[in-house]
Amino acid sequence: MGMNVNYPGLRTLYDKYKAEGFQTIAFPCNQFGGQAPGTDEEERAWAIRKFGFEFDVYDKVLVNGPSAHPLYRFLKAQQPLAAPGAAQPGRPQGDVAWNYEKFLVDRSGQAVKRFKSALDPLSFEADDTAAATS
To answer: Which residues pair with 26 in a beta bridge?
Structure first.
């Protein structure tokens, strides 16, 4: 089943809060068990077809290592851990541990929270979406 169980919750949040300026964006990454092996177009089409995404699905990126995308270097610098003890053994502290790790960015462009992959997006809805849209 994988962590793509996050998609319905992300879609729900987007649909509920988009009128208030809430945005959801996705960056496929193949660094975790080869779970995004397709081309950029194939990965985007899969997300749209399977979950009816209306939000932006960008090209695949690297999220860890020396070639990590600048956005992920920025996000990880601002929010180094998804939760206490969330660093994966054998990985540098701050690395994204698995696909579907989520960052909440406020209107001023600051990463204000980071959530583990397994956390259902709807579980942080109330307080955290308010922080992003105000």
So the answer is: 57
The backbone region for 65, taken as left when phi is positive above 0, alpha when psi lies in -120 to 50, beta otherwise, is: left
Dihedral Cα 113, 57, 11, 93, nearest 10 deg: -30
Residue 129: which residues within 8 A CB-CB, separation 6 or more? Answer: 13, 16, 17, 22, 104
Q: Write the CATH number for 113.
A: 3.40.30.10
- Total domains in the chain come to 1
Provide the β-strand partners of residue 37.
Answer: none
CA angle 99, 102, 108 (to 5 degrees): 145
| Enclosing domain of residue 117 | 2-133
Round to whole Å and give the CA distance between 125 and 112. Answer: 14
Query: Which has more confidence, 97 or 53?
Result: 97
Q: Is the pTM of this model over 0.85?
A: no
